[in-house]
């Protein structure tokens, strides 16, 4: 069984004010071509397809285009689970009819959720889709009173999904979750605000392959066959050093797996430049593109007139400029005070302290975290 | 060929503050059953499926449920065009794949738009889908410079769609348009603000059947085979006397058609009551339901404490109360001044006059009409 695993496309994403749909289109055209070349038996997409529950129409058209072309040209079945950014109801339109065409959109949690079975010459493989769901929904829909946190909720989901699988048969799980031990970057939205939200990577051990989504860095967690495919593109400057890729998995008849990561070439890379103004103005080195999305950190201490304007004459897509020397010791405390790097909880706590003069108490912190979670939950429109 | 024609479902509609999804569900369950009983060769849905371009998730789930059940249980193909309330991009997700399952979602205008051919024992019938589109889009996408207004745009669309149909073969058009001579009610949004927006009914004459959407009153326009199916439910109190229905069309081998209108029973009717307070408090007559959505017009002149509260003890769903005697001659000019019955243009012109003391000039009126149209166009997210 040949499996192509990709994740966290975040279609409709806005990066420092720029819509990335064109960049996403560029990479996804390569993905379509790749699917035609490697001809996998199945494609797995493990959540955060869209960047928000009501995506812009360009994002909807792009997803439609990519999935339709793969299915119509190559007849490769696709299994897609929703992540914490997606709306299960919106993505789920037509799901039952689309499944007959080989497009399995899995977002809704019901007690009828079950594995999708795909055969190769060695027999069946059971693919268990575990879309992102909040623990209260698992308690209600699967009648699982123990699902009080993400760990227990995932356990209940796995038990439910595994029940119909015969002993000794190959099994793959698709999950959108934060596996403990995985490495975060700055562009994932936390699964719970102020809480842990993690699940043990060991939960995924019994599967022959665990296709994970949520963390944006491609990585294995705990063991080689428990893997994040990582995001489609670099979605924050903290990911500048990531090597984004999709994962090609070959599984033999005994369920043993081998892996290959395949890079796709972005239209523009995301890079950080640090140095003195005049050096940076000298422009890109051989092999570097001046069109990349650039964050510049200047070491200069003196005044520079219209620094960003001049930088953009050399690098038209400079999106962010930092001058740590100017702000260190001043009222801004250097790059650490960049509000774009703070979580909602940190932002609010800093605002609260500035306004009231006292830090947030534990209870207040908790109240804020709960409110924020409710807000995200509503935004995802997951209703009981 | 047996055709079931329905239109203007407006899923997600809010009626005087009440979400109608439950009422729409109630009637659509009957529609599913009807489809199973009459077993049409095709179902036509002629636009305004949703009430707005970004519908609430309940509306999406309901549409998914209805279409999936009809297709999966009865295998009746469905052709659905978008109306002026729908977003072609959002409704179009998965369209190419869904078409293979018999669900034809037609919203996008491209030069590849063509008839859908369905056969009966007499041979093929060509179904020409003409979704709601603005004239500028027709000019651009069909390279039709003459499409300067809705009339010309529809003509271009019809010519484009008819081109591949062989001479003498039966043809049906689906259109979402305001055919001149048709009777409006208060719940359709005008197709052009301050303009005509109408198209000649004679454009539809050459078809063996014209399945129209937009007007909410079931009616024929000009001749028997050019018909509005009307809306799913009564969507304003001005429609209290309408008889809502779906249309069953039987077409013979020569393309001659016979019609039957079939009523579905709403969970709650929409009714108007007029009279004296004490008489209305006496309650419903035999055969009338106290649960209907009610608008009450009171003839009393004296003061009545908490009239609506007392009326709701008898009719829990009184949604609107009018007391024309109290307002006649006063600052309000009676029911005519009810802002809910004014168009956006009338509302704005009255507001403008109140604030500035002078009426809108012709130019100002035109500027407002253009702005409003732009707004609607953006809302529909139809982009060139």
TrEMBL record, chains A, B:
Statement: the UniProt record of this protein carries the keyword Hydrolase: yes
Pfam families for the chain: Metallophos, SbcD_C
Gene3D superfamilies in UniProt: 3.60.21.10
SUPFAM superfamilies: Metallo-dependent phosphatases
Calcineurin-like phosphoesterase domain ranges (all copies): 1-93
Ranges where the Nuclease SbcCD subunit D C-terminal domain occurs: 267-355
Record-level GO BP terms: DNA recombination; DNA replication
A GO term, aspect molecular function: endonuclease activity
Keywords: DNA recombination, DNA replication, Endonuclease, Exonuclease, Hydrolase, Nuclease
Family statement: Belongs to the SbcD family.
NCBIfam families registered for this protein in UniProt: sbcd (TIGR00619)
Subunit structure, interactors included: Heterodimer of SbcC and SbcD.
Biological role: SbcCD cleaves DNA hairpin structures. These structures can inhibit DNA replication and are intermediates in certain DNA recombination reactions. The complex acts as a 3'->5' double strand exonuclease that can open hairpins. It also has a 5' single-strand endonuclease activity.
Designated name of the protein: Nuclease SbcCD subunit D
């Amino acid at each position: 069984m040949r499996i192509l695993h990709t994740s966290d496309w975040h279609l409709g994403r806005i990066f420092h004010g720029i819509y990335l749909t064109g960049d996403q289109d560029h990479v996804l055209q390569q993905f379509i071509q790749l699917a035609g070349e490697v001809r996998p038996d199945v494609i797995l997409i493990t959540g955060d397809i869209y960047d928000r529950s009501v995506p812009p129409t360009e994002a909807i058209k792009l997803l439609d285009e990519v999935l339709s072309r793969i299915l119509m040209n190559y007849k490769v079945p696709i299994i897609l689970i929703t992540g914490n950014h997606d709306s299960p109801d919106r993505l789920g339109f037509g799901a039952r009819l689309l499944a007959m065409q080989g497009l399995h959109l899995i977002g809704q949690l019901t007690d009828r959720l079950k594995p999708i079975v795909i055969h190769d010459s060695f027999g069946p493989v059971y693919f268990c889709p575990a879309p992102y769901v909040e623990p209260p929904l698992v308690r209600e829909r699967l009648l699982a009173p123990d699902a009080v946190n993400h760990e227990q909720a995932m356990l209940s989901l796995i038990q439910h999904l595994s029940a119909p699988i015969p002993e000794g048969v190959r099994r793959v799980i698709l999950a959108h979750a934060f596996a403990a031990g995985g490495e975060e970057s700055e562009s994932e939205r936390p699964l719970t605000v102020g809480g842990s939200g993690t699940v043990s990577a060991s939960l995924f051990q019994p599967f022959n392959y665990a296709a994970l989504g949520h963390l944006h860095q491609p990585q294995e967690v705990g063991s080689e066959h428990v893997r994040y495919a990582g995001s489609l593109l670099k979605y924050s400057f903290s990911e500048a050093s990531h090597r984004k890729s999709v994962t090609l998995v070959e599984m033999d008849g005994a369920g043993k797996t081998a892996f290959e990561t395949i890079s796709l070439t972005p239209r523009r890379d995301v890079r950080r430049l640090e140095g003195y103004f005049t050096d940076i103005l000298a422009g890109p080195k051989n092999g570097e593109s001046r069109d990349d999305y650039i964050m510049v950190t200047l070491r200069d201490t003196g005044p520079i007139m219209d620094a960003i304007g001049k930088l953009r004459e050399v690098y038209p897509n400079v999106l962010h400029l930092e001058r740590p020397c100017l702000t260190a010791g001043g009222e801004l405390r250097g790059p650490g005070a960049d509000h774009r790097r703070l979580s909602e909880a940190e932002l609010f706590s800093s605002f609260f302290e500035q306004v009231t003069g006292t830090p947030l108490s534990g209870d207040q912190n908790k109240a804020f975290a709960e409110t924020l979670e409710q807000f995200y939950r509503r935004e995802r429109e997951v209703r009981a």
